[in-house]
Amino acid sequence: MSDDTEMIQRGIGVLTAALSWEPEDPAATEMFKESLKTLARVDDAVSVTFSGGSPEQAAALREVLPQVIRQIIEALAPDYTRLVLGMAIGFKSVAEAYRQDAPDADVAGILQAASLNLAEAEDEDDDED
Length: 129
Hints:
Blueprint: H1 3-20, H2 26-37, H3 55-101, H4 107-128
C-alpha cells in the first residue's frame, strides 16, 4: 500500500472516529486531538542532496537534518491538528444532518466502503503496472 493511500485511509479513520466523538466532552476532545497527531509522521528515510562545502559539512547536515525536520513537523502539528479537527467537526455536523434525513443511513459503512474501494483501486493500478 502506498503512503498516499495509507494517509487517505487514516483520514477516513479520523472521520469514522468523529462520528462517535462528542465535542462537548473535554476528555473526549483531548483524546481525539491526540489521535490526530498520529497523522503526522516522520520517516527516517530522508534523502538529501548537498553540493558544495566539505564532506564533513555534508555529513554533519545529514546527521542533523532528520532532527530539524522532526522539530518543524512538531512545531506545525498544533495548527495541522486544529485544521483536521475543524474538518472532523464539520463532517460530524453534515453526517448528523444526513442521518436526520435518512435515519437508516450507515455513514460508518459508507466510509468503510470508501476506504476499501481506495485499497482495491490501488491494487488494480499495481496489477496494471
